[in-house]
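Hey, can you fold this one?
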Amino acid sequence: MDIIIRNTVNQPTYDQICAQIKAQIIAGKLSPGEALPSIRALAKDLKISVITTKRAYDELEAEGFLYTIAGKGCFVAEKNLDLIRERQMKDLEDHLSAALELSRSCGVSLDELHEMLRILSEEETPL
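Sure. Predicted structure:
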């Protein structure tokens, strides 16, 4: 399992971990029933606090992505991927609506907005 923590982004570390594990589950890189590294092992690998790792795992469990078996560890839960994708699409629509509203209030044209999105997509990792 690959997780990269970026200190240059304005996103809490536990949230970065959650987002990356979710993405790997949705992409099928982590299969249902697959064991995740222990909280301590992941904290050590990422050189972060055990509390931060625990918070990430707790969030993922609360959202139904993981389940815990006492004394055995955390595992990837069975998940309805269509439902997850639908939720993500709704979140994306909400963010795009907010961006569109802000761009209108700033006088940014749709072409300029498209160009911003194109530039940002080139700067980030490929979708």
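Strands lie at 66-69, 73-76. Let me know if you want another pass with a different chain boundary.
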